[in-house]
User: Fold these one by one.
Assistant:
Number 1:
Amino acid sequence: MMRLPRLVLSSLAFATLPTAAFAHTGVGDTSGFVHGFMHPVGGLDHVLAMVAVGLLAARLGGRALWLVPLSFVTMMILGGVAGASGYGMPFVELGISGSILVLGFVIALGRQLPTGLAMALVGFFGIFHGHAHGTEMPVDAQGFAYGAGFVLATALLHAAGLALGLGADRLAGAWSAKASRVAGGAMAAAGAGIMAGIF
């Protein structure tokens, strides 16, 4: 547990690098582990959604701490395979921005979801994020490395959300629930802004 803050700080350092221009399909060289890693952390929409998954898992606690992020990653991989294989999927960008809006709203409500429902919800949105990543995955020998990169980046961003949620519990005590609700509301507002093309 003592190593988690260092892991989170490392992931946040990568997240602040100026790579937003490379976060979506058809931009830049997309081969290799580094490019795969930078794809999720290079776009505000992906970063917010991944952190929201971790924050939601932290608020639910118990088995949700690992089951909710695992559900997202699993379905994201399936979506990534579909995207890399050339299978089309409608409303991918809407699904990505909608994930921030919906997950942020759920966190802002502050109500406990059954773990299974939370897993299904994040898994559904994971498909859209995975498809976006997969359409960037090259079909050469470096494709696996690219996939490993975006899976690791996603896991680190989930860890950042978990650390924020669990850290708030330790530092803020009774105020942590309110802080999480405020964070969820901000995420929902950002999701609405991304959907409207403001960000």
Number 2:
Amino acid sequence: MPFTSARTTRVHYEIDGEGERQAPGLALVHGVGGDAEKVFANVVDHFSDTRTVVRPNLSGSGLTDDDVGELTVDLIADQVTAAVRDATDGPVDLLGFSLGAVAAAAVAAAHPSLVRRLVLVGGWTHSGGPRDRFYFETWRKLLETDRDLLKRFSALTGFSAATLDRFGHDGLAQSLADPWPPAGIVRQIDLAGRIDIRPLLPSITAPTLVVGFGGDAMIPVEGSRQLHAAIAGSRLVEVPGEGHMDWFADPSGLVKLTHDFLDD
């Protein structure tokens, strides 16, 4: 169970596919309320046969431990950087999902020699708009008042209607029985509500794939469009009808997009 340090944080990360590999390492970074295992367990095997795959846990997730202070983009970017440097010789390919996309973009901007290629999935550039601020404030209020309602709200905005119907009544009941969310989600939500990485994005030089979801009611696809517009030479793929977390249930589409981009 590997750990490394970043500032006042003892960063826990998962590692798979260790050893000599022809392909560069791959780092996968989770979003709000997720962790290395919950978000990427069904993805790792698609890459670990040829790569060392590193999955850091941000503060509030997994066994990562810190001083419980306010989270910042710089801090979570440092946590990702520390895990990548501890586990690989670099440079690596870096994929971030949701808040993990924010962290990944910040790493690529600050450490261009560490990131060979960058994949930003369901990300966004800032939380200053009325809708986004209202959304994260609602998450926070639900967390403080009724965790069952938070789970329901997150499912209804995180998955498309078609995916929720495929889960069925039993699957949705199981999701409500899950002990999620972790206690550390509160700081991650607070950080998500005050994101602004727009000044960092022009510094990104790594070839970048931006993946947005056309049916995303959690992080609307406009966030991906703004990332694409701000990162020179980036490529944007919009997946029609998909919700923010639909790929949790079937990662094959995202895996193919990622393989095609990284192996190009």
Number 3:
Amino acid sequence: MDLELRHLRVLCAIADAGSVGAAAGALGFSQQAMSAQLRRLERHFGLPLFDRTASGVEPTQYGIEVLTQARDVLARAAVIGSRQPASASKPPRLIRLAATNSPILPGMVARVRSCLPDLALKVSSVYASSDIVELLENDDLDAAIGVDYPGLELRHSAVVAHRGLVTEPCFVALPAHHRLRHHLEVPLAELAEEAWFLTPDDGAGWPGVFYAACQAAGFVPATVHEFLGDRFQLQSMIAEGLGVSLVQATTRPIAGVLVKPLTGAPLWTRYLLAWRRERLSTAITEVLFNSATVSYRDLIARSPHFQTWASRTYRATRF
């Protein structure tokens, strides 16, 4: 079969919906027709693209690679012909973009500039996702990378939309000489007596979800230091043995620091793209979304501890 854009849209719809049936409804197909289309696509690619589960489907590792490329193709196709002629004197459009404490941003911005070279970006750092929502609501931002947590979906009015990028487990950063350094995974309860470095309230559920996980593990943290600053400074303090910290799963440790998964993955964070509906076209939104997901895939490729964890458990990323 010849691969067409409609085939790529089918794959992305299935991944976004999490089930063949839901994707069929979204695209106006019957479930039988959608299932048949997926079988043909998997024959075309030669490998399974989704794992079938009791609750729906999840992309396989190969499926994630195909989906990433599919979104890139769709995003580029969406903006074909949308640029101004070279003779036009209209200045480039400005997009006001913000991000919380996320390593996704640098790679995302680089890809947006590559896909839309006539688009001007004004980038800022906004820690709290609640502040991001307020800025979007007040038309002080156009788009942002924010976070929320399972069961605590980001709340906002109808003028703002959001779309999940990835839900990943929280890992823990330990001093390299820590007594648990040889463990493949670290039980949260084993860290009950540690001093913790915690980022402050983000208006989306943190640090409440951390304290809830500690309570479920049977303890209250003995010492907590509130810390919002340079990641290198944080890791330097951990390397000196001053405490431990929950970190993003793709964090690259410095010398003297180990990053390990928590046993049973008791804490998860969802990264999302939020935008003001009236300010961004569908084409630009797709470019932002795809650029962020590709940036995240690059982070995974540079995170062997995350890859090892994923190979031992199950697919943690869903685009």
